[in-house]
Structure formats: C-alpha cells, structure tokens
Amino acid sequence: MRALVFDTTLGGWDETRGFELQDVPAPTLDEREDPSDADKVLMKVHYAGICGTDRGIWNRAAFKDHILASIKSEGGTRRILGHEFFGEVVALGSGASRAAPFPLEVGDFAAPESHVVCNKCFQCLRGEKHVCTNEKILGISHDGGFAEFVKLPAHIVWKTDTSKTRPELGAMQEPFGNAVHAATKVPLKGKTIAIFGLGPIGLFLTLVARGLGASTIIGVEPNPVSQEMAKRLGIDYVIALPSRGKNVPPHHRDEGVIREIEELTGGLGVDVSFEMAGFNSSFNNAIFATRRGGDMIAFGIKTGDFVLEDFNRFVVRGLTVHAVIGRRLPETWEMTQKLFADPSNKIQENIWNIILSQGKDTILPLARYTKERFEEMMAKHPKLLIEI
Predict the structure, then answer these.
(1) Domains within the chain, CATH numbers bracketed
(2) Three-state SS string across the chain, please?
(3) I want to staple 4 with a disulfide (CB 3.0 to 4.6 A). Which of 146, 180, 232, 385 is the partner?
C-alpha cells in the first residue's frame, strides 16, 4: 500500500525534511499469528488531516525522541505518519466490536482517537485516560493514518454517522476535540476571552467558545489568512501580532498587544486566555492579558524551557493556569459528535466553507503527492486534507 512515512534509512532526523511517499506492507488481522488482533480493527482511510504536529514533524521540529525511540523499540526503520483521519471499517477481530465505544460492523465509517491508552494505569483507572502513563500516539509512536490502510485497537475507534457528518470533516473530529477540551476547562458563559494563536484549533475554539456563551472573543494572530478566517467565523476582535525585532528576547511579551486588550476590556484584562501557539512570548502575552483572578488555558506545546516574566505578577494577581492535552475520554468525543450533529450551530458549515475553503486547494489526493506541491499548500492554508 502507499503511505507517507519518516524513513530512518534515508538520512538522519536533522538531515532530512518532509514526508516520503513509499510502498509499504499493508497491515492485516491474523489472530493465529497475533492473538491481540482479536480486539483490533482494520480501516480503509478516506481522508487524513494535517495539523501543527505534522508541520512540526515535516520541519523536524517536533517529537524527534518519541518517533526515533518507538521505531527502534519495534526493530523497524520507518514510521507511518498521521493522527487525524477518517475511513471505513473493512475487517474486525473477533472481540473488536465489544471493545469499541460503540458496536462496530464491517462497512461502518469511523474516526480514531489519536492517543492509544492502556486502560490499566493509575490515570486510566481514575477516568483520566488523556494523561495515560503508557500511551502511544498515532503517527508518532504507533503507525498512523497517512496510508491506505491502518490497524487500530478497537477501543479508540469512534463510529461516525455520515448522514450527520460530512466525510471530509470526519477527519476533523480529533482536532476539533482539542478545542472542545480547552473550551470546557472552565465555564465561558458571559465571559470575555482571548485566543493567542488562530491556527486550526484556535479557529475551532472560536466556534466552540461562542456556542458555550462567551460574550466577547478576541484573537491574536500574525498570519493574515488566519486573521481573515477568524473574522468570517464571527470573532469580535482580531489583533495582528507584530513582527519581532532581532534583538527582542524570544520570551518577551508584546506590550502593544497587551495594551490593546486592556483597552478592549476597560483596563481589566480578559476573564480567560487561551495560549494555543506554543511560543514563550505568546505564553507571557496570555498571562499579562488575563484579569486578576482569571484563568489561563495552556494548550500550545514547545520543547524546552520557558521564561515566565514577572513571576510576582502571576502570583499576586491570583491567576489559575490549566494545562490541556488531547481529549478527555470519552466525554470530549461525545460532545464533539453532538456538536457536529447539530446543524443549527453551523459548525460543519463554517469548517467546510471557511477553514477548508470548500476543498479548493486544501485537499490533495495521495497519488498526486510531491514534497514541493505539499509544501506550497501548507504555506497557503492553515488546514489541509489528504484524500487517500
């Protein structure tokens, strides 16, 4: 089968770039050979999404240790990438239907949770599966969905009703769930919020936050394309993040952005800030933009240390910081599918028409993949799909 991979035989992590399109062995279910296949599902992938993590892997700026260590532990040479995808169930192990969140049959359409949890560790047994001690991540430490077929544990496979969810958007359930998890960390009804980083998940967050009753939504973003999308999605204010001078420390907050947010909030600051970009300066912007006693949601990921400016301010103003990773299981998936199934909120309509531009230059057939073409598309659009 065809797949997009990182291949260790083609050069070291730091000496390569992008994804390789290769013919690789297709997965199969064989309970005689591997009894654990009884609880697994074979899926034919239809659509797979590209997110910030994939861009980081493309540029060799994310998940180096996870990918290399997992390949080594498996005794292999490649990792099939991709963790946001949607497809059709084509084979089931003998116990797979019982292990899935909903009973599955061959021919069902489905999308997977990207975190393969153990269901046995301290966190899993406490209902905190999103922080499982022994988790594997699709496309990083477990082969993913940038391929024609993928074999998955049934317990992460979520049946999807295509009469309610557009097939192209079936692959959006996993990343949209990130926004749902972030938006439900604290109550938003009647609150003023700021979103630092209007990439795909930041854009999804504007839709969820509005649906949850946020009264005013402020976005901070450097990319004009994302700024315009946010405006079309109904965000109240967009602040263009200015370019930073070469001599400005990477952790230093943007004073102009903070002043503008203070002006928009009568000098108070926002009730809740969401740091969605994973940059040190953005983290400090979110801290300084939040009112006394307010909440900050930290979602953006960045390897290494961060400098927290003016630690006293952080403590004295009584801020509460909540870290968000992945999706709560099963609550986030249940809410995501409920939101997708409700046409009155226009969530699917907005994602398709605005974020995916109705598929115009945002969907690339796998057969037409080249590194050059894909890099061009990534430079122009915040969200892409691969049609497989």
Answers:
(1) 2-159+356-387 (3.90.180.10), 179-323 (3.40.50.720)
(2) CEEEEEEHHHCCHHHCCCCEEEECCCCCCCCCCCHHHHHEEEEEEEEEEECHHHHHHHCCCCCHHHHHHHHHHHCCCEEECCCEEEEEEEEECCCHHHHCCCCCCCCCEEEECCEECCCCCHHHHCCCHHHCCCCEEECCCECCCCECEEEEEHHHEEECCCCCCCHHHHCCHHHHHHHHHHHCCCCCCCCEEEEECCCHHHHHHHHHHHHCCCCEEEEEECCHHHHHHHHHCCCCEEEECCCCCCCCCCCCCCHHHHHHHHHHCCCCCEEEEEECCCCHHHHHHHHHHEEEEEEEEECCCCCCCCCCCCHHHHHHCCCEEEECCCCCCCHHHHHHHHHHHCHHHCHHHHHHHHHCHHHCCCEEEHHHCCHHHHHHHHHHCCCEEEEC
(3) 146
